[in-house]
Amino acid sequence: MIDAGWDATMETERAKLEHFWRSNGPKMRSALQSPLLGRFQANQYRGIDVRHLHNKFGWQAGNNIHCAGAFYRTEAFMRLPDQHRCGQKKAQTVHIEHTVPIASIVSAITAARPEGPSQIITWLLARSITTGVADGKGPEAERRRIVRRGYARRTDLFTPGHADENLPFRRYDATSGTRIWDLVSRRPIDPDRFTMADHHANLKVALAWAALPDWSEQLAAIPA
Hints:
It is globular and about 40 Å long. By secondary structure, it is an alpha+beta fold. The protein contains 10 helices and 5 strands; from the N terminus they run ααααβαβααβαββαα. Strand 4 and strand 5 form a beta hairpin. Strands 2-3-1-4-5 form a 5-stranded mixed beta sheet.
């Protein structure tokens, strides 16, 4: 069911998302042969390596990717015409916001120690949530005002007993005026209700688009 507020602009954006995942399945699978997987298997996780892996899933603004693989995008991002989207620093208008910060992912996977290339990749996919946001100059740019004060590089998503546990979008400031949509389910994000299980459900759909059923099987073994 399409939620109230969904319109043709966002449906077009969803179609671009689906096209990206359907077109890049082989590139995503090629990550299994990447040298960084060797470091990951030795439990040597670096933030830059995780970012490079994210790039294969379209979770980057640069290189004319413009966050094409991101399941979650703000309305401001989606209403920006393609020709006005730029991920380069000098004239940046779009940005990939790591809703689950890279430092938090590195800490969590180092502790979890998944074994095997496909298990490592699916673990990272299961825990990695990114959001396409609008960018610009000044402190009022969406990129700079979306995150709650004190949470620029952290999250309590993985903190047992915390109010934000299992709620990745609670890291964002509810008073920022930013509205985020889940393009897979075609529904607006409710930060108090969207859980990691919802993300897993979206990821399962995307892995089907990319023709990566074996990764979907691996995903089923990872607790949401």
